[in-house]
Amino acid sequence: MIRIIRTYDPWILSFALAATFLGLIFIFDAGYARALKTDHNSLPPEFKSQLLFLVAAAITTILTSAIRVEFFRKWSKLVWLVNIGALVAVMIFGQRLNSATRWFGIGQFTIQPGEFAKLAVVIYLAGYFAHRKAWPDKIKPQPTWVLTVDNIWIPKLKRIMPAVWVLCAAVLVEVEPDLGTAAVIAVTGFAMFLPGGVSRKSLVAAVLIAILGAGLATIKEPYRVQRFLDHPNRWTTRNIDDTEYQTVQAELAIASGGAKGVGLGIGRGKQVLPATTTDFIMATVGEETGLWGSLGVLLVLGGLVFRLFYLAKRAPTQFGMLVLYGVGMWIGVQTCVNMMMANAFLPAIGIPIPFISSGGSSLVALWMAIGVCQAALRPEPVKEPAPVVAGNQELKDNWARGGRSVPVLSTNYRGRLL
Prior knowledge:
The protein is mainly α and 418 residues long. 65% of the residues lie in helices and 3% in strands.
């Protein structure tokens, strides 16, 4: 345990703890108004749930950080297959809530597989790209079409399968429906193509496919199209209390906070916003702590992302570098999109802010990712080669069998051990 603790990067741990602590404060603050309406002596249910999941998150990060990173690389495909299986199973056996089937659970205790898919896509792609060989610049023409298929097209199809798997996961999450989580999975997967050595042509093709997929996912549900069309005119009488209600109220709350905020517990936005502790918790942060409080939250999360990118360049293994980079992209992209959604730059698409928004599955998945990143920073043990023993075959055989006999010097000693 002492050896494990010494491998922790204190900055990653400190930033994650600070963000979690801030999240608990604002979850309690944002949920307290609703709790008062139901039971004056009760804590906000979101706050109590977050505390329980925080215990599970702490145990999870300790366990994952204790595992050698080689284990995650070796079993990265299995991690991904289990994740795909969970996404399929939740569609069949999942708990339906608010017209969505995203959770496994009994009563109020629920788990959302889509949140763990964000980490699974990082581990899977890191395991794939860590030992991916570069495609040859020049390929010799094959004499027959059969050899062309065997030696060119089949290897190419195998190389694009990770992108297909990521697309499958995004589709499975989108049909729950959960377009926000699906978008984070897709963007994180695409971001990992950059350090993975994917060619420019493949990157352009991936961008075009992503744009096409996003367009199809949007037009599939009429309310999504309407939300995007109404967003530029959200302050009109027709939209202000209809499709753009959440965005308008969040924007109004942040604007009311000014630079210093109205004070903790005094905000009005949390009393009217339906997702006040999840997707729009930053509206409460901006209203009650002002611009400086919002910048403080961004400073903590931005510091975590910067530290992950900084350490990615110094990771002892290629797999570790990709994991650190992928987790940094995941947290960074999700933070930016949530902030743009809260301040009305983007329409409401259902993306929480990491560590700050309530959500047990999100918290456990994030802390599990922190544990994997800590494991990725631990140097791999180097096996010392057995010294060459000359002149005594019996000692050579004993050393090969794992013995610890002292090697002898060669009779032809020339100032070094042969």
